[in-house]
Description:
The complex is a heterodimer. By secondary structure, chain A is an all-alpha fold. Helices cover 77% and strands 1% of the residues of chain A. Chain A has a domain at 164-315. Chain B has helices spanning 8-20, 26-29, 41-62, 68-86, 95-114, 126-142, 145-161, 163-172, 176-193, 200-230, 237-261, 264-284, 289-310, 329-345, and strands spanning 120-121, 124-125, 318-319. At the A-B interface, helix 1, helix 2, strand 1, helix 3 and helix 6 of A face helix 1, helix 3, helix 10, helix 12 and helix 13 of B.
Amino acid sequence: MHTLEPELRALHAEGTIDDATASRALALDRGQVFSLHPELRATLYAGVLLVMSGVGIILARNLERIGPLAIVLAIALAAAACAVPAVRAKLAGRPLTVAADYLLLLAVLLVSADLAYAERQFTLLGPLWSWHLLLLAIFHAAIAYAFASPLVLAASLAALAGWFGAGGTLGDMLPFSYSTPALGARALACATVIAAWRYADRRARPDTRFSDVFDHFAANLAFWGTLAWCVDWPWIAAGLPLLAALAWTSVRHGLDTGREAFLVYGIVYAAIGICAAAVPRLHGMTTSFSFVLVIVCAAAAMLWQLRRRLREPGP
Amino acid sequence: MSRWRPSPDEERWLAVVSELGAALPRTAVAERTGGWRSTGLLARIALFVLGFVAAALLFGILGVGSKANLLVAGLVAALAAEWLTVSKRLHASGIEEGLCVAGFLLIGAWITTLIEGEPRFADGSVDTLVLIAALAAAGLRLLNPLVTTCAVLGLVYWVGSTATAHALDQTIGGGVTSVTFGCALAALALVLGAREHRRPSHDRMLDWLVATLPVAAYLQHANWSAFNALHVWASGGTGRLVTVVLLLALGAAMLVAGLRRRRHAPLLGFMGCVVGLAIELRLATTLATETWLIVYGLAALFAGVALDRYLRQPRNGLTSAPLDSREGPLDLLQTAGAAVLAQRTAPESPPSRPTVTPGEGQFGGGGASGNY
């Protein structure tokens, strides 16, 4: 164990930190206040993950034994039961607790699985099955707004990305494997929709808690899409300038808001994009490695310098 | 004031800066931190990766075919890291850490090329031990808990892979040697963690061991059990019993220590023990996979809901509410986790069936139509 009490007392005594800051920091240091919030979140996430994995296996294995309709109804009932704590909190005018938030996430995921299963069994939408994802995105968004849940909003945006055909799988993150310009265009279109949605949300509700979620989704999708345009000619002519613009915007956003994640996005994605564009056109392993080394060193130096300029985020 | 790394006092002031964030003006403590410069967590991770990649590229440029290039690339990377530390006074900044770890590993790899005849130590590979030692040296040099923890986890796996451990496992049960070794190290770290440490980094090194060793050691046991079940012979009841007893004892000690000391690491270690016990319980029963997944999932959810309700009003200083409203890496992880879960449950495209037209039947031969 270690305690920083002497240092905190010294800072307080010389007036560098005020009474409130000092007492709060000392209480945390001594363990007089201790939050189990991280452990709670990990436990709840594990619970949602396990239940959804179990439900997935049930849907795959026990179809004949139970019957499709019974499965659909049972899962719908389970989803409704999971939403009860969130509904109660909403009716009482309280904000969602962390447990109610995760149970609400489980509820919407169960609805997703249920609808996916129903669609597969009864082919409700026929050849337009992929519109199912858009319906899910809208449904999840409605729930997210009704209960002010960023977690459910993340599920909604994931469904939206899936509808655009730009789901965030590992393959999408590795543009050298099989990403195509068409996939890049879809990812960019999705990022544009999310950015517009974010703008509208911000205008309609200035105190929104959703901006962070929108920002991360839009940034990653836009960068993935642009990287897919940085490999082949003639897409590269648009891809590289777009990459530069996105990197600048991301870094600017990071510096303005004090969030270093956007500095990292801007620098690292830009470095990957430049290497993806240049390395296939270089001859010889030594030349390629040397070029990548220069880019890596430049990216590291730039990230370091920009991080030094980052102002601390406000409380 | 040390040139090579922050003194204990300087490191403590760096910890204060990190703790207080924007509430503390940097200029007020610039002198006390000795001019050491650090960065945020996400930038540190990115810089670590960039540093590591740079060292690997350097080795690639020099030529992967020559053994001597391992030494040259390793020395250049390690010296670059030292230059950044000493001249630029970087500490826990990522870039010097990535370079140093890669440099030490390259030098370690070069040393393994000097050892001929594949010598054994305690019937285990000396080459692996050299790499683990290189990693541990880098971690201690950098005061980096992640790197030292990786070295200790590597040691646990190395101990489990030795012929001596295999011989012991044949007697007392599969994988029990590594579980016992890992649990013993975790218990030792837990005991040492109770002492007062001047350097926060030493405390963090012990915390990381406490949090990760139970799961890591158990995973090796689980791998062994799976291997045995498939290929060799069923894991004996003795091994399972020993594992359960060890995890129970360690888990109980960690829960008590975590609540008494008000530290996250023992509580995370306790959660790791619970995971191991849950898997052992599952292996001892004949429950279907989907049943135990749902039962355990519901148990975790009920436990979470109960804890949340119980601690909504702080009890004896314990609370379930977050103490910091700032967006942190955990929030980013949570958003990503929710998106991943949503993607796993999203509908997949229906299986494509070839269109069948009359006269092109699949099984009926000439003239058949439609599906069989």
